[in-house]
Design brief:
single chain; about 290 residues; alpha+beta; Phosphorylase Kinase, domain 1; 2 domains; 12-stranded antiparallel sheet; 6 helices; disordered N terminus
Length: about 290
């Protein structure tokens, strides 16, 4: 498989190289399943044709997903949540802002950067930064006020629609504005995965197999997962398998998900070309 390049490219001027991570809880990528399917079924047109995306209609976080990585090696991992926002908003790097979890619509973490989405008062956010002895406002980039943490060199960018913290944030801003290639434009496999995932409160995706699984890494090109919350409920996993992956790999995926401590029962399994989807009842992660 040929993936988009993740080598460093020329970036707009924007300071800082802090690599600190802000972990999201709860979306470990379990694999597998055990239910009925027809692996020999003909693939649908959406499994084989080039997808198109109306960026004005999709979930906003997708406009921020980039093919670029601040990390030495990347699987393009992203975690988005509309629930349990107290894990991200008002803590860690975002604690400098007088923003409560209920003020945010969602939070995206990709490449160790956090993007909090919502409808914000930009000037109030700037005032929060100016009032902090540990932060310095450095200017503006594409309508977003920029700042830097004195000790950690963490970058900040704040606007009416988002609060960003991390490094090389100009890349994410340019991506959101359509000035830089988005992840789905670089590799439409993620569009195909999103098409098969229900719109839920927690969404995760990446290249390659989920961590901790025993599935052959060469069999899985990419995968995505969504579920309503960290409480017990229903989750969906979608895998994009490498072309010519055999039925045995699908059965292996089914077996692993069925044995996962996170899953109580696999309720549905479907195959559409090289895309395999599983629906399962999940245990609480609260």
């Amino acid at each position: 498989m040929t993936r988009p390049g993740y080598a460093a490219t020329a970036l707009p001027p924007f300071r800082a190289r802090q690599r600190g991570a802000l972990a999201l809880a709860g979306l470990a990528g379990c694999t597998g399943g055990d239910a009925e399917s027809d692996p020999t079924a003909e693939p649908t047109a959406t499994a084989t044709s080039d997808p198109s995306v109306d960026w004005s209609e999709v979930a906003e976080f997708r406009t921020w997903l980039t093919e670029y990585s601040t990390l030495p090696s990347s699987n393009a991992r992203f975690d988005y949540q509309q629930v349990n926002l107290d894990q991200v908003v008002g803590v860690g790097r975002t604690s400098v802002f007088d923003v409560a979890p209920e003020d945010a619509d969602g939070a995206l973490v990709q490449s160790a950067n956090v993007v909090v989405l919502g409808d914000f008062d930009r000037e109030s956010l700037v005032a929060d930064l100016e009032a902090s002895e540990d932060h310095e406002v450095t200017g503006e980039y594409e309508g977003y006020a920029t700042a830097e943490a004195a000790e950690t060199a963490t970058e900040y960018a704040v606007g009416g629609d988002a609060v960003l913290a991390g490094s090389e944030l100009a890349v994410w801003i340019d991506t959101h504005l359509g000035e830089r290639e988005r992840l789905e434009e670089a590799d439409p496999v993620f569009t195909r995965i999103f098409e098969r995932l229900p719109d839920r409160g927690l969404v995760t995706g990446q290249y390659g197999p989920p961590a901790g699984g025993e599935i052959d890494a060469e069999a899985i090109e990419a995968w995505g997962h969504s579920m309503p919350s960290l409480a017990a409920g229903e989750g969906t996993w979608v895998y994009a398998l490498e072309p010519d992956t055999g039925e045995a790999a699908v059965d292996e995926l089914a077996a692993e998900l069925g044995e996962s401590a996170f899953v109580t029962e696999v309720t549905e399994r479907g195959v559409d070309g090289r895309f395999v989807a599983f629906t399962a009842e999940t245990r609480s992660l609260d």
